[in-house]
Design a protein that fits this description.
Layout lengths: L1 E10 L2 E11 L4 E5 L6 H8 L7 E6 L2 E2 L5 H7 L1 E4 L11 H8 L8 H11 L1 H5 L10 H13 L5 E5 L7 H16 L3 E5 L3 H7 L2 E6 L2 E7 H5 L2 H6 L5
Parallel strand pairs: 3-8, 3-9, 6-7, 7-8
Antiparallel strand pairs: 1-2, 1-4, 4-5, 9-10
Length: about 230
């Protein structure tokens, strides 16, 4: 489904992503692991068109996305849930969800709105409330729901557990797995490596813009370097 080849992304003279290659097959949850500054968020932003690569290729179903503006990438079937949620604070929950469907021309938005409210019943309860007054967990639900309103085949999910209480983190990740079972492929950036490897099919480990490990999530959980660096084990 998604293939990234030799991707190089820079901020001025600073190389944030240094020629990485990765792929995501339909139906998978693939995790990108690494410490702050490893290049994970930069990779997602480049796939979704928010950043332009200096070199390399991004293919979605065999079609190049390089140079394509973000709104057209959304129409191709990729939706991005950014780090920090970035909901529209002054709009209601309902209006935020409607904004997620802005690029659609089909008649399925109403059904997807129902789907979001089934996945996140709290959003139905808060549907008339301004997004800026929601809790952090509710805003994360809203950010994911807004992305789902684009009816994506690939969901780019950046740090969904950031700043949330453990019980809410568990809820969010259970819902991500449910979304995946319903047919949406997921590329996940997550600081909580243990949780990411628990839900992922495969994973890539980034260090300073380079992929240093990759493989099945079940194998990486047992890898000595991963256990020491990301799972808090010695």
């Amino acid at each position: 489904m998604l293939e990234v080849r030799d991707l190089l992304v820079s901020y001025g003279e600073i190389r944030a992503v240094k020629g990485i290659s990765l792929n995501v097959a339909a139906g998978e949850i693939v995790a990108l692991l690494g410490s702050n500054g490893a290049g994970k968020t930069t990779t997602l932003k480049t796939v979704s068109g928010l950043l332009a690569p200096r070199s390399g290729e991004i293919l979605f179903d065999g079609e190049s996305l390089r140079g394509m503006p973000p709104h057209l990438i959304v129409r191709k079937g990729i939706a991005h849930v950014p780090e920090g949620r970035h909901v529209f604070n002054r709009l209601t929950v309902w209006e935020n969800l409607e904004m997620g469907a802005y690029a659609r021309s089909d008649a399925g938005a109403a059904a997807d709105l129902d789907r979001v409210f089934v996945l996140f019943p709290r959003l139905w309860e808060r549907r008339r409330q301004r997004a800026g007054t929601l809790s952090g967990g509710e805003q994360q639900m809203l950010a994911i729901g807004r992305a789902l309103m684009a009816n994506p085949r690939l969901l780019l999910l950046d740090e969904p557990s950031m700043g949330l209480a453990p019980v809410l983190v568990e809820q969010i990740f259970e819902t991500v797995q449910r979304i995946n079972r319903q047919g949406t492929t997921v590329l996940l950036v997550e600081q909580n490596a243990a949780l990411a490897l628990e839900v992922a099919t495969r994973a890539y480990v980034l260090e300073t813009g380079t992929i240093v490990l990759s493989g099945a999530a079940a194998d990486l959980v047992r890898h000595e370097d991963v256990r020491r660096a990301y799972l808090g084990e010695i």
